[in-house]
Fold:
Amino acid sequence: MDEPLTLSNDEEVEETKKSPTPTTTEVAQPSIRYTNKQRVLILCGRGINARHRHLMDDLKLLIPHHKKDNKLDTKDHLAVVNEIAEMKGCNSTLFLETRNRNDLYLWACKTPNGPSIKFRVLNVHTMSELRMTGNCMLGLKKRNFEIV
Structure:
């Protein structure tokens, strides 16, 4: 007579299927959609050749959240890059500069006061040479779709 009360498998399944009733204190929260706040400023200095300009265009194709700016005149004062990025509302910067018409350097930095790094670019191969398509999501915006 002191047997514990056990449920059959069917009764257990029925109990798990029942959803709890919502109480008045629980409020359905709207789904919050993530918006990317990261922006990258891509600019170059004067004196880059066509091959380097194609590299910059390929970087623009690969980074969907970029902002572009005209060529920068000064080579001495790189602090100007921070001011341009702040005016454009960018968090990061990619700056291409040339020295002696052949040496290409890529500066990457977090703009307000973050770290920066300088790369020397040795071999430049564009996406058209490698037959790569680039950003496959480039033309897939909601405005391009028609409801049928």
Remarks:
- Residues 47 and 98 are 7 Å apart (CA to CA).
- The chain has a mean pLDDT of 76.
- The first strand starts at residue 40 and ends at 44.
